[in-house]
């Protein structure tokens, strides 16, 4: 999320035409095209964040700047060259790191929240806990996970929450 993504086409010499066909999960399809005989590029329904990385006559690589959840979907590059027709398809999945919050509830129990992550984060505790995480899905595809630490021993004063996620792991400690 927020980074640039670069998708390459099969490298071929003597390219006649290149077309990127993009089918996002949300919104309508878009295409970017290049015709060598006219040295002309065209675009249909593509946002400004999607464009050729450099000149398509030299390199038909697609660059997506400031990747967002709306960019998720299928990206197919079709190359027409003297050697034949070639295509490559990518399925773009956007990872959203959750925001980690650790606090004490009204009864002095540690609460760990991994907010708005995609996919849902996994929460665990340093000391074993009877915790069952609750998940809440959001309209944009992200998920908030909330876990309450339940100690087996009442003399626990300090505990650590671990959040595991494909975009990176996080941990915080608290004394309630």
UniProtKB/TrEMBL annotation:
Recorded coiled-coil stretches: none
UniProt-listed GO biological process terms: regulation of neuroinflammatory response
Keyword Cell wall biogenesis/degradation assigned: no
Gene Ontology molecular function, alphabetical: signaling receptor activity
Keywords in alphabetical order: Disulfide bond, Glycoprotein, Membrane, Receptor, Transmembrane, Transmembrane helix
Source organism, top-level taxon: Eukaryota
Compartment(s): Membrane
A single cellular component GO annotation: external side of plasma membrane
Membrane topology: Single-pass membrane protein
InterPro entries membership: CD200R, CD80_C2-set, Ig-like_dom, Ig-like_dom_sf, Ig-like_fold, Ig_V-set
SUPFAM superfamilies in UniProt: Immunoglobulin
Domain Ig-like: 60-175
Family: Belongs to the CD200R family.
Protein name: MOR1A protein
UniProt source species: Balaeniceps rex
